[in-house]
Design brief:
about 425 residues; nine-stranded mixed sheet; five-stranded parallel sheet; 21 strands
């Protein structure tokens, strides 16, 4: 017995957008769709935004979870919240974080998406030929088609000097589930490690009267309006060139890495950081930490330039590991029935985002998000990448479901509205 026709693993921006597109297209009935997500709809994304002090999105207002590109703008106008669409150096205005989430919540409520959520963690996914079997913390689930919409799965990086610190040391990564910036004492001496957008946001968020904040950034700041060149946002020319390279190859990985402005921050974040440094709210140390020692509830750091500091709290904002190193993808890439490539990247069918089996045939598992970057390019992980993945998935799923039996076993012909 198959539980659903389509199951989405992940309830972040990608998972929510895919679900909304599927429901509003008429491709699946509500009874045939589920989202498996332990943190609830957009819960993980909401938490990360709070952890890093994000105030507005980097993406323009046409990038959101709804199917209509202008839905967020119209939402703001109807509620007299046009002032929450802030200016951008690259064209369309950007929404504040509160506007983005209020709009997303309204969209989810409109289609009652919450009722389709299974609050569980997926621990394994197996393509069984005519169905996909999901092992979850709430039991086994089967589906005809599985859409993986997961992010980096907590595979963030910490500097080497943090490896030997005891668990009680006041050192954490900004993306640790347990990290809560509100729990840092208002008179604490806090350090932030990193030189990109996240480190800048965390440092300026923590910079409050009475608190001593130091940013350890060993390299010069890089300022870029977007995560990559705008030509990649059209998913045409550069993406077509990318697909000329072998799938899931080192060449594709390097092309995507070279195209992304990782470690850069947009101008508005840089301006805030610059003001904080100029006013003395944030002290900038142009050096790297070499050692750290826990000492009576504090951490003493020694830097490459020979200086040392005693900090009440140290926050690492130092990026991510490979998107294929998370627990779920590690299990999947160990499955001999699925093809993987360079550093465990899934070998995807470029035109469908379906994970290819060992025999070269497309499986019943499709991938959206950062793990699809070798097929969609450097914006795969962004909101616009979710929208592109939604279009791709709907195109092939429409053909697959046109004559296939539904989850209840009856034959169904579906057409998109």
């Amino acid at each position: 017995m198959v539980d659903t026709t389509v199951t989405i693993v992940g309830g972040g921006v990608h998972g929510v957008h895919l679900a909304i597109r599927l429901l509003e297209s008429g491709l699946v009935d509500r009874s045939e769709l589920r989202i498996v997500e332990p943190d609830g709809l957009l819960g993980g994304f909401r938490r990360k935004c709070a952890q890093c002090g994000m105030a507005e999105l980097r993406s323009p207002f046409v990038h959101h979870v709804d199917s209509d590109p202008f839905s967020l703008r119209d939402f703001a106008r109807r509620r007299n919240r046009g002032d929450e669409l802030v200016g951008s150096e690259v064209g369309a205005d950007r929404p504040t974080l509160s506007l983005f989430f209020d709009h997303a919540d309204a969209v989810c409520e409109r289609v009652d998406l919450e009722s389709l959520v299974v609050e569980a963690a997926v621990t394994d996914v197996t393509d069984s030929g005519d169905r996909v079997v999901l092992e979850t913390s709430a039991g086994r689930h089967t589906t005809r088609w599985c859409l993986l919409a997961v992010g980096h799965d907590r595979s963030h990086t910490c500097p080497d000097w943090a490896a030997d610190l005891p668990a009680s040391a006041p050192v954490s990564h900004v993306w640790d589930r347990e990290f809560d910036p509100d729990a840092i004492d208002e008179f604490a001496s806090a350090g932030v490690v990193g030189g990109g957008i996240t480190a800048a946001q965390v440092a300026t968020m923590l910079a409050q009267p009475g608190r001593d904040v130091t940013l350890f950034a060993r390299s010069p700041f890089r300022v870029e309006s977007l995560e990559a060149g705008t030509d990649w946002m059209h998913f045409s020319g550069p993406v077509a060139d990318l697909r000329e390279l072998p799938p899931a190859s080192e060449d594709r990985a390097r092309t995507v890495a070279d195209a992304r402005h990782d470690g850069a921050m947009p101008p508005y974040v840089f301006r805030r950081l610059r003001r904080a440094i100029d006013t003395g709210s944030v002290a900038l140390e142009r050096t790297a930490i070499t050692t750290a020692t826990a000492a009576g509830g504090t951490v003493v750091v020694t830097c490459r330039d020979g200086t040392a500091r005693c900090l009440d709290r140290l926050v690492c904002a130092t990026g991510f590991d490979s998107p294929y190193d998370g627990a779920l993808f590690s299990r999947l890439r160990a499955d001999p029935s699925l093809r993987t490539g360079y550093r465990g990247a899934p070998v995807l069918e470029d035109d469908t985002l379906r994970w290819l089996r060992a025999d070269g045939s497309p499986s019943r598992i499709a991938v959206s998000g950062v793990a699809a970057q070798q097929a969609l390019g450097p914006f795969a992980r962004n909101v616009i990448g979710a929208r592109r993945a939604g279009t791709v998935v709907l195109d092939w799923l429409d053909d697959e479901l046109e004559t296939s039996p539904s989850a209840s076993g009856s034959s169904a012909v579906r057409t998109r509205e």
